[in-house]
Amino acid sequence: MTFLKQRKLKKLAHELLRHAHHMRNMREDILSEAQLQELATRESNLRTSLEEKNSTFIESSMKSLEDTLNSIAPHPKGGGLRENFEILVVALVVAMSLRAYFLQPFKIPTGSMQPTLYGITSKQKDAPGLTDHVPFKFLKFAVTGQNYSERYAKTSGTLILSKSKSKDPSVLLFEINGMLHKIPRDAVIFFALDQCEFINKPGKENVLKTGDSVNKGDLLWSGVVTRGDHVFVNKIIWNFRKPKRGEIMVFKTTDIPTLQQGTHYIKRMCGLPNDKVSIREPNLVINGEIVDAPKTIQRVTSDPNYAGYQLAGKLSSVDLEWPLTDSEYFAMGDNTGNSRDSRYWGPVPEKNLVGPAVIIYWPFSKRWGLAK
After folding, report:
1. Dist CA 20 CA 178 (whole Å)
2. 71 exposure class (CB count in 10 Å sphere: 0-12, 13-18, 19+)
3. Chain Cα centroid distance, residue 167
4. Who contacts 260 (Cβ-Cβ below 8 Å, separation ≥6)?
5. Cβ distance 353 to 243 under 8 Å?
6. Residue 165: per-residue pLDDT
7. Is the pLDDT of residue 83 over 90?
């Protein structure tokens, strides 16, 4: 026997001994004395054969030990499949534990935090490109979160804006002859209280308006829909320290008046307990002083990509301020011109806090990485 074969045989023998030791620890309380004695004898014989470096003796001792182990714990049919299933179950348990106790995924539905975090957005496009067809579209979606979409009229009739509200904040509902149709919200332009228009096909009849007649099969809208940023939320950090001004806060909407119950919102933490919050455009003002730190607050007022903090709701004047109790937080979107936040529905109770957003994990855009 060559040196390499002897070395491999020795390695296999040691692995078998480790397996036998593990089996003894796992089943010692349910094995009979005779089984334990047989196992000990087979292990001893294999160790002796290794010391004597007798290849024939090593092989026969390994066979005897393997037979004993199989008699103690026989491999069921489909053992490999069962082992893979057990690994999958363990992985799922670990993942669920992380979600329940440490990290929770959260997707951004609206544009209230833009350009820091993007919600679901859409852009009109006349026709699909090469990457919008199989198989490329699957890779494109996996990387960028983008997919080409076309919305057609399901029936003939007059296009009207529906009074029904969509559970998906990224779309508006329209009706044609009583049938609902979804159109991306940011493709729609309002020009009166109950009238609106949206782009259809450029270069032809490029605008559809409420009140227009459409036929079944007509293209209502076509374009690329980009999924909102997906973030991980740290659910435990605020158990060890107080929340900080400027963090991206995720909170439950439970018992907050006018908000949809049983869901989560994501905003910027602007006011802390016992603060008096006001706005002096474009600045955030706390206790009468303009806030210029941390950087996440300062950039909303100074970065040209942001519009600054704007007066609205119960803070519609520089003379108004909102006093917080010792268990309340004030939440505002970075895109304050397009954010329904604490200026409208009030502060967030401490008991509703979930945690700060820490990582943007999908899609893979320029924002991918730490959430700030």
Report:
1. 71
2. exposed
3. 18
4. 253
5. yes
6. 84
7. no
Tokens 């109770």, located at residue = 349
Beta pairing, strands 146-152 & 219-226 = antiparallel
CA atoms 350, 354, 357, 363: torsion sign: negative
Tokens of 244: 């900080």
Query: How far apart are alpha carbons 150 and 152 in whole angstroms?
Result: 6
Half-sphere exposure of 106 (CA within 13 A, CB side): 29
Mean pLDDT in residue range 267-276? 98
Q: How many CA atoms lie within 13 A of 247 on its CB side?
A: 21
Q: What is the DSSP letter of 185?
A: G
Q: Which two tokens mark 72?
A: 């103690």
Measured distance CA(239)–CA(350) in Å, rounded: 12
Q: Report which of 369, 372, 334 is spatially closest to residue 244, judged by C-alpha positions.
A: 372
User: What are the structural domains, with CATH classification, of the chain?
Assistant: 3-72 (1.20.1270), 121-226 (no CATH), 230-370 (2.10.109.10)
Contact call for residues 159 and 237 (beta carbons, < 8 A) = no
For 164-195, write each residue's pLDDT tens digit: 888 888 899 999 999 999 999 888 888 776 78
State how far the Cα of 217 lies from the Cα of 271, in Å rounded to an integer.
51
Peptide bond into 282 cis (omega under 30): yes
